[in-house]
């Protein structure tokens, strides 16, 4: 029989890539979301406010997935609210399915903030030695990732499913309408710099500019999620999920600039975050998008300056070890420069940039 997948957060960068991969492998895919973004072709769509337990339970009444994938979060004003809301969304879905998860696989996508702490705690506590390894465990800070994990673990004890947790770094992938996408944000930024003559300045910290880094291609993460849902060695395990190569931004930045036909500016004397420099960007993008008949004129649906600033502004080196995943049998790999180039090509083909 055809395997059934339920993806919570299907309209996002990760959910879209996962849906496409599962369909390629013959799965029937259903997406559960708030209904704010388009879902991939060929998928069933369920819509609910994930914070409302009764609504989620009613929507899921007939669902019995072989694999349940969580790739969803809702940003709140502080980490305690993030814990309440985001932990609650995971719990509501699990309780909405209950015993129908018996024998299934439940996968949760979190990220490297597992090791770094949440946005508001960056650099405020001890950071594990790089590369980050799964054995390093949790930081002694509030973190909604931990709350989501605990809901998955509790559900496994209660309803008899197996689980996996996946920790990607910055996701590079395609999803218009999902603005928390650094690759897409950088593509919009570079296009603005080319069209307006603005300098293409790296907005992040000296540590990120010069230190070792890695990222996660959405397609690679999709491959790992599918592998974990079916491989015996992946049951009840946590895994890092990055491309497998490492780089320094002072090497990658000029290559991104070259793709867009511009020069990379020298690293500035002090950090120059995007959020403080993009006050004119919305009006400029509307004019550019209208003139070139691009798909989206509202820059807020394409770029998230604060999120990219947070990723690139970390005051520490951040990269990841993949040994645990490889030893368990997952050997997927991507070249990071190729990941960015493929995304930029896709954005051009879809008339998001030009």
UniProtKB/TrEMBL annotation:
<protein>
    <submittedName>
        <fullName>NAD-dependent dehydratase</fullName>
    </submittedName>
</protein>
<feature type="domain" description="PRISE-like Rossmann-fold">
    <location>
        <begin position="65"/>
        <end position="353"/>
    </location>
</feature>
<dbReference type="Pfam" id="PF22917">
    <property type="entry name" value="PRISE"/>
</dbReference>
<dbReference type="InterPro" id="IPR055222">
    <property type="entry name" value="PRISE-like_Rossmann-fold"/>
</dbReference>
<dbReference type="InterPro" id="IPR036291">
    <property type="entry name" value="NAD(P)-bd_dom_sf"/>
</dbReference>
């Amino acid at each position: 029989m055809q395997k059934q997948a339920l993806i919570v957060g299907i309209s996002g960068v990760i959910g879209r890539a996962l849906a496409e991969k599962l369909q390629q492998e013959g799965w029937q895919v259903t997406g559960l979301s708030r209904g704010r973004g388009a879902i991939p072709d060929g998928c069933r769509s369920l819509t609910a406010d994930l914070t409302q337990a009764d609504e989620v339970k009613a929507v899921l009444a007939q669902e019995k997935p072989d694999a349940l994938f969580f790739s969803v979060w809702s940003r709140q004003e502080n980490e305690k609210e993030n814990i309440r809301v985001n932990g609650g969304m995971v719990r509501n879905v699990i309780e909405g399915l209950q015993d129908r998860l018996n024998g299934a696989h439940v996968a949760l996508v979190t990220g490297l903030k597992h090791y770094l702490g949440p946005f508001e705690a960056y650099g405020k506590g001890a950071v594990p030695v790089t590369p980050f390894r799964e054995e390093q465990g949790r930081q002694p800070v509030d973190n909604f990732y931990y709350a989501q994990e605990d809901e998955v673990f509790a559900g496994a004890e209660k309803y008899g499913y197996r689980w996996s947790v996946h920790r990607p770094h910055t996701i590079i992938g395609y999803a218009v309408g999902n603005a928390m996408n650094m690759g897409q944000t950088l593509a919009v930024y570079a296009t603005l710099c080319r069209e307006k003559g603005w300098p293409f300045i790296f907005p992040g910290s000296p540590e990120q500019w010069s230190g070792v880094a890695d990222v996660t291609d959405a397609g690679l993460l999709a491959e790992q999620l599918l592998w974990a849902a079916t491989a015996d060695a992946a049951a009840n395990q946590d895994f890092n999920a990055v491309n497998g190569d490492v780089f320094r931004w002072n090497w990658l930045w000029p290559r991104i600039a070259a793709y867009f036909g511009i020069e990379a500016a020298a690293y500035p004397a002090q950090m120059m975050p995007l959020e403080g420099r993009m006050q004119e960007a919305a009006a400029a993008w509307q004019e550019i998008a209208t003139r070139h008949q691009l798909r989206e004129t509202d820059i807020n649906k394409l770029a998230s300056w604060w999120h990219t600033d947070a990723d690139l502004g970390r005051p520490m080196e951040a990269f990841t070890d993949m040994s645990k995943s490889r030893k368990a049998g997952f050997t997927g790999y991507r070249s990071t420069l190729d990941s960015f180039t493929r995304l930029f090509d896709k954005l051009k083909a879809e008339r998001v940039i030009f």
